[in-house]
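Entry for the shared binder. Reason: the reviewer on the internal report wants the predicted structure included alongside the sequence.
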Amino acid sequence: MVVFGDSPEDPNFLRQMELLRRDLAALEQRDVVLVTDTDPEARSEWRTRLRPRGFSLVLMDKDLRPVIRKPLPWEVREIVAAIDKFPLRRQEMLERNPAGR
């Protein structure tokens, strides 16, 4: 997951960080790696590749392909619900619980 803001004080960026802190365990269960970028002038590899405009939340699959882009902060429950629909995540859940097929 990549969270972009135009500065470290970007209100949407700060709100997203607050929302993520509320349920880190749910993100850890899904092997989420968080990358933040609040410096548009640095032209990071993430910015160059994903081209955000202002605040942006980008959920990526494990192959680093962007799957979902959001222009506003999301609650962790929305993030994990989206991740749980990713094909690789569904496969992982079935492997962990074969009876759930």
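Summary line for the report: The two ends are 28 Å apart (CA to CA).
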